[in-house]
Amino acid sequence: MYGKKVKLRAFFLLLIFFVLALSIFLIFKSLEENVIYFKSPTEIKNLSELSDNNKIRVGGMVKINSIKINDKEVIFIITDLKNEIIVNFQGSIPNLFEEGKGVVAEGFIKDRKYFNATKILAKHDENYMPPEVKEALKDDE
Amino acid sequence: MLGQIGIYSLYITSIISVFLIFSSLFFKRNLDENFNSRIFSLISIQLFMVLLSFCCLIYAFIISDFSIETVFNNSHTNKPLFYKISGTWGNHEGSLLLWLLVLTIFLFVFFIYSKNLLFKYRLLTVFFQEIIILGFLLFILLTSNPFSNLYPIPKEGNGLNPILQDPALAIHPPILYLGYVGTSIIFSSSLAALIAGLDNKIWASHIKKWVIVSWIFLTLGIMLGSIWAYYELGWGGFWFWDPVENVSLMPWFCLTALFHTIIVLEKRKIFQSWAIILSIATFSLSMSGTFLVRSGILNSIHTFANDPSRGIFILCFLFILIFLAIFIFFIYQNNISENLYKPYLVSKETSIMVNNLFMMFFLAVVLIGTVYPIFLEVINGSKISIGPPFYHKLIMPLLIPFLFFMAIGPNFKWIKDSLNKINIQQLFFLLISILVSFIFIKKNDVSFLLSLPLFGVGIFLFLLTIKDFVSDKSHISKKISHFGFSIFILSILFNGILSKEYSANMRVGDERVFMNKTIKFENLKIVQGQNYQSVVGLFKIIEEGKVLDFNPEIRVYAQPETITSEADISTSIFSDNFLVFNILKNNGYYNVRYQIKPFMMWIWISIIIISTGGILSFFRKNG
Asked: What is the ipTM of this complex?
């Protein structure tokens, strides 16, 4: 038979293994639920099914002459030069939000043409373009 | 000229580095009386050379020597002097030179303050440290030379990103780097102690000081970055779980775990393997932090200038180091001589292990959340990001047992104790805490499930740490840090629950009502700054006859052409009022954001209290 010490060690090893497995399981489960996918307007148009419960990010350029502002809301159009989507947004807007510049909006799809943004992402400088946008625009060239 | 001096002193540094690596590797053959002083003089020359090179760069920034590309890219003649200097490390090349400088400074200090220790141990530490130094030197010389020349010499530079022209961010990188690089000494010396077979108690009490120093700087460095993000980025938060923030938090978790473990190692001579693993992990995380931020792999809102080829270099270097470390660990693990005694479940050792387990869990959460998007993009090309809910969901519930153990753990004795420690008094405190938390939660109408126990244990920790000040005879440093942590958690919770936010698009003359306050946008005025023009908004917030003035700014910088918002924050002990506004390029509208942030001040104060505990523990006489 194994001694008491070996048993104790084995018990602890098992315990650690179990805790490890459990926490990794929890982390990945939570990961699945909280992932935010990035889509370009074209990808949204080509989506096979629309689920309006999942948060996503839409990136592209703010279409020239598309920003409309009233007391509460900002409405504008994100374009990847092929397709576009109308975004409405309430809340605070970063300084670099400008027509003809890159933008990333986070929120929920209403349908293939409308997007309810909950957040407009800030960027640090005017040269910076989110990698996703750069790629989305590059694909279209 | 400056560039030449700078670059040649770096060449000399690398020659010394190679020489030191070889001479420390084959030291047995030429061991004599002078050997020690020869090594010491080489280290001093090396330090001098790197310092010289760094000063050249600073001087080039001060006199705006645009023949040097780094200066041209990141400076401008009409920038204030302070930001000319801080611009030195506000860019990739300069910040690496700073890394190198801190590496050599720490090695120098280490060599001085380890005189009475085993010579082989010191020499091996020099060996490992020199490998790291050489790696960084090659990195600097091959991929990011800070002194590369420009010809013809431009008349004017590109200027520093205005968002970095800020006092908190000027000192944030050096402080953070002191923390990061401090872990390199821990890494080198843990391997050296293993090979040299240094008694683990001696190693622990020696390296503990370094752990504490790195820990203090890392803590303060993270805080400075967070303060900066709070008032400069205009979102009114202090932590966004952004990848760039996460990479500084990961080594912090590791280092905190190591801080606790090293105490056990010193007192009880156990957990040496674990301490070595933690040392390796901490340094790897610090390095990969630099790698991830600089490579541009991370999709961060804080992205600064970057270049993938640099990332690959650091990545290879990092792999070599980790591989080397693990290899050495397995080869020499027989040198580990831990105390063998029957472990008891209820003891201080166990409670410190519990702390470590939680730290590792938090680390795993942050690590996976940060790295997962990169992997997914490599694997199937989909671009994702992971929002704060992921972290909150996983960290918040685990905080409950964590804080509970943190409250009761420190009171256990070494080796063996009994659960009778959990006496009536503590139960009484726990009951009070839950009651207080219940009343508070009920009043503020938030969800019960998580907030009630979380608040409860937060207050429990707070009460118990206060009680320990009176009743416990042990050293004050730990009590202060733990007390600070309880305030930290409580103020974050209060802040999270009680924060209020209002945003609207307003024109001059508009008035809005929010809760019982009236926000008035009265006027605008233009003010000329040193290297910017600013549009100052004159706002009034009226609450029951009391009038508060807010003057947030929008700064327009010419070099480079950038707009930044400067929030106006009126700070009081219990609450911050935060107002920021942005230009909307359309018919006179401004986007105004008003926030009430309770206990904001206490978040910063508590972090300072936590670090104070560390400082006191550093100056403690007998470890």
From this structure: 0.81
